[in-house]
Specification:
Blueprint (H helix, E strand, L loop, with lengths): L61 H31 E2 L3 H28 L8 H7 L10 E2 H29 L1 H23 L14
Parallel strand pairs: 1-2
């Protein structure tokens, strides 16, 4: 009479309650494989985990960041306008001394364009969206369009000097507020001023005589 052999296959032991299977679970509710269990509170604040709708620079209040970004937005628009002006003059300057001025303006354009990028990225760092569109520039500017088209070197240099004076004056006025709000942004604007004031000197050096007197009008 045949006998039935007993099965030698053992049953798998069911995982105990509260385990995460083979991976296991850490005390803080995070599985050993790095996943987070549902229903378990995560450490830290919502902002530190990047789960809030807004953010700004650590250690800076959102109110101060908002005011700083607004100041920088106006400086951004002025710098964008200056890049357009520099290229316009680069294309339209004529007459005696043309090539020297034509080639002098390209490095200035490139440097100011870099200021535009740095200023916009500083605004974005504060969690605010920088606006580089023409509509924003036109809506907020308090200066007139550059007045010249094709014209001779001295006339363009006089108008460029006035354009630089406007940007530099407003940059310096911005420092009064930025010093109270954010020293890092203040330092950025100071660096820009050093370059802008140097560029204005290049312009003025073409217009002054040996006594250091600069012409105010050449027509």
């Amino acid at each position: 009479m045949a006998t039935t052999a007993r099965s030698t296959t053992s049953k798998k032991k069911a995982p105990s309650r509260g385990s995460a299977g083979a991976a296991g679970t850490a005390k803080n509710g995070t599985a050993k494989n790095g996943t987070v269990k549902r229903g378990v509170a995560k450490a830290g604040t919502a902002r530190s985990r990047g789960e809030t709708d807004t953010y700004t620079i650590p250690g800076m209040s959102e109110d101060d960041a908002g005011v700083t970004a607004e100041i920088l937005q106006r400086r951004l628009e002025a710098l964008i306008d200056l890049t357009l002006t520099l290229k316009h003059v680069h294309w339209n300057v004529v007459g005696n001394g043309f090539i020297g001025v034509h080639e002098m303006l390209d490095p200035q354009y490139q440097a100011v364009a870099l200021m535009v990028d740095t200023t916009a990225e500083r605004i974005a760092t504060m969690g605010v969206s920088p606006n580089g569109l023409a509509g924003s520039l036109v809506a907020h500017r308090d200066w007139e369009d550059y007045p010249l088209g094709r014209d001779v070197v001295p006339q363009h240099l006089l108008e460029l000097d006035a354009a630089y004076s406007g940007v530099i004056g407003d940059h310096r006025a911005a420092l009064d507020r930025l010093g109270e709000l954010d020293p890092v942004t203040e330092d950025m604007i100071i660096g820009q001023l050093a370059a802008l004031e140097g560029f204005q000197w290049f312009i003025r050096a073409h217009l002054e005589n040996r006594d250091g007197v600069m012409a105010k009008s050449l027509r």
